[in-house]
Amino acid sequence: MQRGIIIRRMELSDLDGVYNLERKLFPNPWPKSFFETDLKSKNSIGFVAEYEGSIIGYSMASYDDGKFHITNIAVDREFQRQGIASKLMHILEDLALGRGCYYAYLEVRIDNSAAINLYRSLGYEIAYKRNNYYIDGDDAYVMEKELK
User: Do residues 144 and 125 lie in contact, with contact meaning Cβ atoms separated by under 8 Å?
Assistant: First the structure.
């Protein structure tokens, strides 16, 4: 990971930067209210990767009943392939274990091979396909991992 990149907990004051990055990276971005609602939930957590005062990545997850749902993760294109997404995932997984969660899962577009390969490299496996998962009608793979 490049020097000068800081990973810290997401705060409400980060939402404009997070949402701007979300809109930059995804054709059908989450509404800003989704981030805000999740961040305010007692069963959710978010982290941001920051470089020179700008949000360059983020991750969010929720947990309940021993299950850890990674709901969103993104890294700005110019900072991809530097280990930032892996670091964000490891931080989430460590937190999950600390909260008694031993099972993690996420959804990923079936045509997002870069993300699928990243998750596979971190030990996630495709469990099944969820049809019409995304608002634009695209399907998702549900990928899962037993945390240790």
Answer: yes
